[in-house]
Amino acid sequence: MHQLVALKVIALRGVHTQAQLAEQLLIDAPAASRLVDRLQEDGLVTREAGADRRCVRLQVTNACWPEVEVLEDEVLRVDEEVAKHLSAEEMSELKRLLDKVQVALGTNTVVHEKQLAE
């Protein structure tokens, strides 16, 4: 699942370096590198030479899109399930609070390094 989150961040949020990925996922650089290694092994991401020799640019492959779609479908399913148990007002408040947490954390996605090892 963590690979899917990383893939979504790379594919849909304009993240093109491992450093940006690490920052978005709140993980260290070695963990981001291992995550990209797995995505590359699965044929979902490529590493290409960047403008700076020390930095590589991450590019998604066409094979990534079905995986991203799976994640997007799951997000919609969870939203629909939550909506069954909350009123429209409560859903609005939940989204407001989650947005506030995201701003406070300074990121859109939170994945801790221990979770990546699972």
How would you characterize this protein structure?
With 118 residues, the chain is mainly alpha-helical. Helices cover 64% and strands 8% of the residues. The chain has one domain: Arc Repressor Mutant, subunit A, CATH 1.10.10.10. The chain contains six helices and two strands. A two-stranded antiparallel ribbon has the order 1-2. The longest helix is centred in the middle third of the chain and has 22 residues. It is globular and about 50 Å long. This is HTH marR-type domain-containing protein. One of its GO terms (biological process) is response to stress. InterPro entries: HTH_MarR-typ, MarR/SlyA-like, WH-like_DNA-bd_sf, WH_DNA-bd_sf.
User: How many structural domains in the coordinates?
Assistant: 1
Secondary-structure-derived class: mainly alpha
For the secondary structure, the number of strands is 2
State the CATH topology: Arc Repressor Mutant, subunit A
Q: Which regions have little confidence, pLDDT < 50, spanning 5+ residues? A: 107-118
Q: What kind of oligomer do you see?
A: single chain
Key structural traits:
single chain, 118 residues, mainly alpha, Arc Repressor Mutant, subunit A, two-stranded antiparallel sheet, 2 strands
Indicate the topology.
Layout: H1 2-12, H2 18-25, H3 29-41, E1 45-49, E2 56-60, H4 64-85, H5 88-105, H6 113-116
Antiparallel strand pairs: 1-2
Keywords: DNA-binding, Transcription, Transcription regulation
InterPro entries: HTH_MarR-typ, MarR/SlyA-like, WH-like_DNA-bd_sf, WH_DNA-bd_sf
Organism: Cystobacter ferrugineus
